[in-house]
Specification:
A hairpin with a 4-residue loop joins strand 6 and strand 7. It is built from four helices and eight strands. The protein has one domain: 7,8-Dihydro-6-hydroxymethylpterin-pyrophosphokinase HPPK (Alpha-Beta Plaits, 2-Layer Sandwich), CATH 3.30.70. The chain is globular and about 40 Å long. The two termini are about 30 Å apart. With about 160 residues, the protein is an alpha+beta fold.
């Protein structure tokens, strides 16, 4: 089983219910187990800013799926939640991203691990900090150092926790 950190977010519809449904479906969809889930964070949109705020978090999952098979499973959950093709970084009922897959690196036309913008996004790093072992470096540096570099990005603990 691989240990995988999955970033999740939603900014359309009942965000919390959509996220909860996806987290509940993850074990059956991936053949694994959700080991831990971060708190939820209210975050400003990134990229396309003229849209509702997101509810974001991170889940730690163990799964027997390979990275490409896991990506397909996550995309299936997104589609089941009503996600359709739209503008990059636009609004969506559900977004699921593979952030880290064990200690693997991978670069294909459809999937890059670690997630290529992981260290640029506080809305990912902040919930990841809820789960990440404090003494374990993240991609060569303490997670606190990465968080300090994106401290100007608005991330607030959600009242929907």
């Amino acid at each position: 089983m691989a240990q995988v950190y999955i970033g999740f977010g939603s900014n359309l519809g009942d965000r919390r219910a959509t996220i909860q449904a996806a987290l509940t479906a993850l074990p059956q969809t991936t053949g694994g187990h959700v080991l831990a889930v971060s708190r939820l964070y209210e975050t400003a949109p990134w990229g396309v800013t003229d849209q509702p705020p997101f509810l974001n978090g991170v889940a730690l999952l163990d799964t027997p799926l390979t990275p490409p098979d896991l990506l397909a499973a996550l995309q299936g959950l997104e589609a089941a939640a009503g996600r359709h093709a739209g503008p990059r970084w636009g609004p969506r009922p559900l977004d699921l991203d593979i952030l880290l897959y064990d200690d693997q690196t991978l670069s294909t036309p459809t999937l890059t691990i670690p997630h290529p913008r992981l260290l640029e996004r506080r809305f990912v790093l902040q919930p990841l900090a809820d789960l990440w072992p404090p003494d374990r470096p993240l991609l060569g540096a303490p997670l606190a150092d990465h968080l300090a570099r994106v401290a100007d990005q608005a991330v607030v603990l959600s009242a929907e926790c």
